[in-house]
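Entry for the shared binder. Reason: the reviewer on the internal report wants the predicted structure included alongside the sequence.
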Amino acid sequence: MQRFLERHAERIVGVLSGFDRVLFRGTLRSWEYAEGLGKVLNSLGVLLKDFRPFAMGLSKEVKQHAEQYAARFQRPVLYLASAATSKEETARRIMEQDGVQQGLVCVLKCVEPCRTVTVHPNQKTKQLELRYETRKCIFVYYYFLDREFGLMHVRLQTWLPFPVQVCINGREYLACRMRRAGIGFEQRENCFTRIDDLPRAQAMLRDLEERDWSLFLGAITRRLQPLLAPRHRLGLRGYYWTIRESEYATDVMFRDAKALAEIYPALIDHAIKHFRCQDVLRFLGRKTNARFNGEVDGNLRRREEGVRIKHWVEENSLKMYDKQGSVLRVEMTLNNPKRFRTRRWGTSHGEICLKWQPLRKSIEDISRRAELGLAANERYLEALGVVGVSTPTRHLFDPVSKPIIRAGRSYRALRPIAPEEAKLFAALLGGEFLLQGFRNKDVRKQLYGDPPNPQQRRQAAGKVTRLIRLLRAHGIVRKVSHTTYYRITNQGQTLMTTALHLRELDLPQVAA
């Protein structure tokens, strides 16, 4: 990302990175599967033939509590006839009409699809059994204007197994904190176009990554879920919290809308024409070897407020769009954390040790989610660092087109447009090397294959060694300390990409 910021330093006034929308999901773990719920019913003395009146009684408690909660604060309860109706727009309209400054805004009810449990007869065993299936039920949406998180909502399912969702917005949280701290800012919808004390604001936003979310989420649900009451006959201890979806956004704030508009079309054009599947995998920290058998996709969408480009790698995505004219946003959306790994304590060969394990949905791994999101956004912006700069190609090619001396040893000039150099450049720019780097044998296989003769392999390895030394001398690649890997420098990325592009240009375009 640093290259992008340096190239457009005169246009950019600041960068803000942090969580945008985070959707938490609470579940009653023993109620989420048939065997566990069966044990709960058995402990309560509820027979399966009596399951329906038992479930309807609990559902009635949840619905009545919503009515009573709204009445206590004298707020409206509305039923939405269509699930497609925007709940947030409805809540904002009510908030503005009633002048709500803090607390409950409204309670909305809507019928939506859900995963629920019912009782069915088993034809083989001739007994009743619990089944989980997709049906429809009423959901209750509580909208709050919270002192700490701004406008937020809690979505509660009114039928077994009673999952709950809590949605917060990191930008709303930051706006509330900056108001209390007296930091001046300008906010337009869900982004900031100006922040007077950006380092302090960035630190505030990062506090979300270290927060004890179980305390906050537990306090909310105990107010809204009557089944969690201490003296309730169910004896529930509380919800188990996971993150269903998280959005981590990096906002590059430009000086004004004109400054962004001058380069944004070029950024979109470059992303469409030059970002391949291997590049998208690299942005999201995924390996590009043969073991990957998922799907990589992307699209471009023109909206009223601007143009958005989005890339998918299986369930997770990365997108770029312009917000409010002067903010360039790059955002990673993480839906399936198991595609990534985190380092935590585990057991290996009977011993407890730190090891790389799949990232969990649990709120315990939220800081790792932030690391992955920031890294993906930075890689994307770094790849866009070559765009929008008017630099004649001679400034790239002239320095490397002369013989040089390094550490008392002379090296020949590079020939960037020559077929031999182009073949080497194309091999090094392959997506499989961009994440970890490349070794001598990796380049050897790309250029010379795998000769069966040991002597030919040694000769090929020697040629590659000399080529790598030549590229290092000209600053095209660098060695990774304490390893046998090499990586392409920023200068090398720009030079090799430009050289390959020039070779493929149509002659009429060059002569135009």
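Summary line for the report: The longest strand covers residues 103-122.
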